[in-house]
Amino acid sequence: PVTDGSRELHSLCAQLEFLLQFDLKEKRSFFGQRKDYWDFLCQGLARCRQEHEGIHFVASLDKLKTPVGRGRAFLRYCLVHQQLAESLQLCLLNPESLCEWYYARSPFLSPKWRAEILGILYELDCVTFHLAL
Predict the structure, then answer these.
(1) Which of 33, 68, 130, 133 sits at a 20 to 30 Å CA gap from 57?
(2) 129-130 and 2-3 as β-strands: parallel, antiparallel, unpaired?
(3) pTM for the full predicted model
């Protein structure tokens, strides 16, 4: 199993975060806080009318104060519960939402790259992750 001490885990999470932040449009909340991929994931899963335990779990963690911190916790939750590919796929289903959140260079806007990324993420479902949440 992959644990918190794994170098590969840190590299994987950094690459996932890079993908989710690459060419992300700058958006602000009502109070001026910068939105990040966490907000994109929450909105995408809400649009699919999916009650996602990971969203509820991360939102309940009082120690997490920033969207980036919440996003990182969500990625870890999804890895542990083998839900990363499915959760991201649900967020990527709506082309209008993708264009609302990402500029044209985002790999998520390319059907070819999107399929390849999701295919690789589905392969991660075979890996066991034992991470502190």
Answers:
(1) 33
(2) parallel
(3) 0.91
